[in-house]
Amino acid sequence: MIKYRLIAFLAVLLQLHCPTLGQPYPNYHADFVGIGEHGGDLKWWQTAAFYQIYPRSFKDSNGDGVGDLNGIAEQLPYLKELGITATWLSPIFTSPMADFGYDIANFTEIAPIFGTMADFEHLMEVAKKLDIKIILDFVPNHSSDECEWFRRSAARDPEFKDFYVWHPGRMENGNRHPPSNWISVFRGSAWQWHEGRQEFYLHQFVKKQPDLNYRNPKVRETMSNVLRFWLSKGVSGFRIDAVPHVFEIAPDNQNQYRDEPRNDWDNDPEDYGYLQHIYTKDQPETIDLVYSWRAVLDAFQKEHGGEDRILMAETYSPIDIVMQYYGNATAEGAQLPFNFLLISELSNSSNAHAYEGTVLKWLQHMPKGRTANWVLGNHDQPRVGSRLGRDRVDMLNMLTATLPGASVTYQGEELGMTNVWISWKDTVDPSACNTNPSIYEQYSRDPERTPFQWTNAQDAGFSNASKTWLPIAVDYKEVNVELERQKPLSHLNVFKQLWQLRKQSQTLQRGETEVKALSDAVLAVKRYLERDSTYLTLLNIYDGVETINLLQSFPDLPPQLKVVVVTERSQVKVGDLVNSTSLQLQPKDSLVLQTTSSYYSYATNGEARFLPVLGVYLWLAQVGLYLSNR
Ligand code: GLC
Fold it and tell me: 511, 542, 537, 508: which is closest to 524 by C-alpha?
C-alpha cells in the first residue's frame, strides 16, 4: 500500500513542477497580445512616457520673451519628476519663423533664438544624466524659401535645380495659370509664382515653405544625411512632420498635374477642405520613404551600437494607411506612427461606448507584434482640457497611462492648461493670419501654444520679459507647477502617481488589455498578466453618480479591489478596499484599482493551469489506495 501511495504522491509532485504537461491557461482575449512575456526584453520606447516640448513656450532663460534650449536644460529635472522618459522637441533649427520653426533654413544649425550648438550639446548632456531621451523634429516635406537649397534651385544651379517641385504653369488663352487647382493647408493656391525662375513652385503649407521634390534621389540622400547628422549628436530619434504630404502625384506624360476633385461640403474655394487631396496626400511612395529613413536609423545603430533610435510619424491619414507606417513583412517602418484617434474621434459629448470604440479601433487595426501609442494633444490641436473638458483631464491622463504602449503628453497638459483666447491683433499663427478677423479663431493654433505656467510670478515664471511672444493665460495663478506641486490631488500629482505606478507595474507595461463600456457613462480598462496583479481603470465620463457591479462585466475579478490612484473628485482614498459588486463613482470621477486577494493572485497565477490535472492525479492516487487496500 505504501508503495502505491508513494507513486501517487510522486506523480502529483511531478505534475506540479512540470508546466509543459499542464493545460495552457485559457487565453480568453486572444485578440490582444500583450507586449512581452515576463522578463522578456522590452525596448525603451515600447512603454515610454513621451513629452512634447514646444521650445518657444517652455522656458525662456535669456529674457527675450521666447523659450530656448538653456531654458529646457534648466527644467529637464521637472520632466524627470513627472516620470517622463523621452522628450520630443518641436523644431529648433535656423528658420525665419514663418511657421515658427517648421520652415527650416538650415537643417543642421540651431536657430539663434533658441541658442547655439554648444547649448544643444549641453542639453544632450543634461538629458543623458537624467536618462531622458531626446527626440528631434524632422521636417522633410519642405524647407524655408530662405534655405540655400531653394535659392540655388530658383537660380537653376544644376546641383539644386530639381530640389523643389517647379512647373511653368498652364497656358490658357495666352494667360498663365497655376499648374493645378491644388490648395495649401494654410489657404489659397498651393502654387506660387517665382519671378526669378519664371516658374511656379509648390508649397503645401505657407508660401515660405516650398515643397522638396522627393522624386529627386539627391533630395532623398540629402535628407537622410540630415538624419545622420543629428544621430551622430546623440539623439534617440525623430518625430517626422507632415508625413502624408511628402509625395504628390508625378506629372503625366505631357508634364501636367491633375486637378483634385471637390468636396461638396465646403464652399470656400480658398479653404483646404474645398478639395479631396487624392494627388497631394497619402501617395504610396511615402510609405517606402519612411521605411528608408528607418533603415538609416537601423544602420546607424548597427554601426554605433546603443539603444534603439526611433521614428514617430505624424500621419493624419485613414487608419489602414497609418498602420502601413509600422512596416510590413519585409521592411520596418516607424516604431510609433502617431495615434491621433483620441483627438480626431472624441468630443466633449462622446459617451463611454465612443471611448471604447476609439481605443479598440487602434488596438484592433494594429498589426501583431507592434506597439500602440496614445496622443492626447500637440501644438496643432486645441488642448485636451478645452476639447474634452477641463474636468476630464485626470481621467484622460489615467486612460493613456494605463493603456498598453507609449503615450505622448503635450507640455502643460499634465497641469490642465487649457486654450487661451488670443485677439486678432495678437495672432501670429500663419494658419490664422491667412484668414480674416471674423473666422481666424477656427484656424488659429496660438491658443494651445501660449507660454508654460511655472509659477504665479510675472509671466507665469516662463520669462522675465516685458512681453512674451504670445500672451500668458489668465488662469496662471491657479494653474501652475509651483501650486500644483503642493496640492496632493492636483492634475500634476495625479499625473506623477500614474507614471510612478506604471513604472513599477509589469502588468501595466506588458500585460494584456480589455476595454469595455460598462454603460453610457462608464469606461473600464482591464490590464492583466499571468503571475501578476490585475488593474482596472474606471472613468465616469458623465455628471451622474454611477454605481457599478464589476463582476457583471469581469466575472473573474475577486470580490474586493484595492484603490491605487484617485482624483480630487473621488470619495475613496488610495489604499481603500472597494466591493466589486457595488462600486460608486462620483461625477467625472476616475480610479485605478488593483487586485490583492490571495485567492485572486492564486487564480491568475500560472500554477492555476495545473488544477484540473491535479484533480486527475488525486483520483489516480485514490485508485492506488483502493488497489493497495484490496
Ligand atoms: C505639421 C506641424 C505643424 C506645421 C506643419 C507644416 O503639421 O505639426 O505645426 O505647421 O506640419 O510643417
Answer: 537
Percent residues over pLDDT 90 in the chain: 88
Under CATH, to which class is 49-142+217-255+277-415 assigned? alpha beta
Per-residue confidence (pLDDT) for residue 24, from 0 to 100: 29
Same fold, 49-142+217-255+277-415 and 508-604: no
Residue type present at position 146? E
Rounded Cα distance, 295 and 45, in Å = 17
Question: Coil, strand or helix: which one is 312?
Answer: strand
Tell the residue number behind the cell numbers 497611462, with chain if given: 401
C-alpha dihedral sign at 458, 459, 465, 466: negative
Cα–ligand 1 centroid distance for 279 (angstroms): 19
Distance 380 CA to ligand 1 centre (A): 7
CA nearest neighbour of 373 among 135, 185, 550, 554: 135
End-to-end alpha-carbon separation of the chain, Å? 9
Listed in sequence order, the residues at least 6 apart from 225 whose beta carbon sits closer than 8 Å to its beta carbon are none
Distance 242 CA to ligand 1 centre (A): 6
Grid cell 488663352 is found at 173
Write down the pLDDT at residue 591: 98
Active site residue 252: no
* All structural domains of the chain with their residue ranges: 49-142+217-255+277-415, 508-604
How far is Cα 514 from Cα 510, in angstroms, rounded to an integer?
13
Residue ranges around ligand 1 (CB below 6 Å): 99, 102, 139, 205, 241-242, 314, 379-380
Cα–Cα distance, 463 to 66 (Å, whole number): 8
Q: Give the C-alpha separation, 606 to 100, whole Å.
A: 54
CA angle 241, 325, 79 (to 5 degrees): 55
Proportion of the chain above pLDDT 70, given as a percent: 88
| 507 touches 528 (CB < 8 A) | yes
Q: Which of 248, 314, 394, 429 is catalytic?
A: 314
Q: What is the DSSP letter of 241?
A: T
User: 508-604 maps to which CATH number?
Assistant: 2.60.40.1180
Three-state DSSP at 227 gives helix
Q: What is the pLDDT of residues 521-566, one digit of tens each?
A: 999 999 999 999 999 999 999 999 999 999 999 999 999 999 999 9
pLDDT per position as a tens digit, 401-438: 999 999 999 999 999 999 999 999 999 999 999 999 99
Q: Is 314 a catalytic residue?
A: yes
Give the 3-state DSSP-derived string for 1-18, with helices as H, strands as E and coil as C. Answer: CHHHHHHHHHHHHHHHCC
Beta carbons of 86 and 50 less than 8 angstroms apart: yes
